[in-house]
Design a protein that fits this description.
With about 300 residues, the protein is mainly alpha-helical. It has two domains: about 100 residues, no CATH class; about 170 residues, no CATH class. Helices cover about 65% and strands about 0% of the residues. The chain contains eleven helices and no strands. α1 runs parallel beside α4, α5 runs antiparallel to α7 and α8 packs antiparallel against α9.
């Protein structure tokens, strides 16, 4: 690691804790329609305002032994877990970017993407909800990032795009940026199309909705940020992971003798999409590479 970059992981770890705390605020308040700014943090049971020292990420939860200091109501360990997870991912974003052009810019972009994916995973896990207020801006940010990324670290233009844009000077910077943004748009559209086709097919067979529209917008956002190959890899990993998790969950579902049949139980695919996309940040197209190695071994 370059000498001037050595203190950066510590700063990202610290800010990761702070933004992890903010993520907790958003995931709790947004579903309730509350402001994420006002009022200040308070106990979810007795509504007693928290003092400044009780708002320190992770440390306050440990000092309070996981309980409200006023009513002694248990505070979920989810709070420090989210803060630690955010800090770890932000630190990994720096480490993964040190050998790339403009490492700080790339690290910030990766950290923002990881933060958004964690937030969407939390909302989908708790509420089966991927709000438009987050997914649409994430798509737009992804397109902006692909353009910025092309200006600082241009990637080879695919032969397909070169054939579609024969009249453009693709070697010049404007052409490179345009091609990168166009590729991101196509990847986003492809991601949305995959979910919409599956959703429509399920409706034709079962005459009821299967995958939600939020999943389509989330996969589109992943395509916009990471490109077509990483989007497809994320989708395949998410479907595989969700299938395994569903098979493991069915015995518990049946044991509870729920009135809802196992074939109609809801499952938050967005959680698996989000975590698969985070994995793509640090190990791009790892599943595709694994399949190719197995196929040509």
């Amino acid at each position: 690691m370059r000498a001037w970059l050595q203190p950066v992981p510590a700063f990202f770890a610290l800010f990761g804790l702070l933004f992890g705390s903010f993520l907790n605020v958003v995931r709790i308040r947004m579903p309730e329609g509350m402001s994420i700014v006002h009022p200040g943090s308070r106990c979810p049971r007795c509504q007693h305002p928290l003092a400044a020292w009780q708002n320190i990420p992770v440390l306050s939860w440990m000092l309070l032994c996981g309980r409200c200091s006023f009513c002694h109501f248990p505070i979920s360990p989810t709070y420090p877990i989210v803060e630690i997870a955010t800090s770890v991912l932000w630190t990994m974003s720096v480490v993964a970017s040190v050998r790339q052009p403009a490492p700080i810019v790339q690290a910030v972009a990766s950290a923002i993407f990881c933060w958004i994916m964690l937030l969407l995973a939390a909302l989908d896990w708790q509420h089966f909800w991927l709000p438009d207020r987050i997914t649409w801006p994430t798509i737009m940010l992804g397109l902006l990032w692909r353009g910025l990324h092309a200006s600082i670290a241009p990637l080879p233009i695919s032969p397909m795009l070169a054939a579609v844009l024969p009249a453009m000077e693709l070697e010049a910077k404007p052409g490179v940026i345009f091609a990168a943004v166009l590729a991101a748009v196509l990847a986003a559209l492809a991601g949305a199309a995959i979910v919409l086709v599956l959703r429509f097919t399920y409706w034709l067979v079962r005459r009821r909705e299967g995958m939600g529209l939020g999943d389509a917008k989330l996969l589109a956002a992943i395509g916009a940020w990471l490109g077509f190959t990483a989007m497809l890899d994320s989708f395949l990993v998410a479907v595989l992971g969700a299938s395994v998790a569903a098979l493991l969950w069915i015995p518990f579902h049946l044991k509870r003798r729920s009135n809802q049949g196992w074939s109609t139980m809801s499952f938050p695919l967005g959680v698996f999409l989000a975590f698969a996309a985070i994995a793509e940040i640090f190990s791009p197209a790892w599943l595709l590479h694994l399949w190719l190695q197995l196929a040509f071994r």
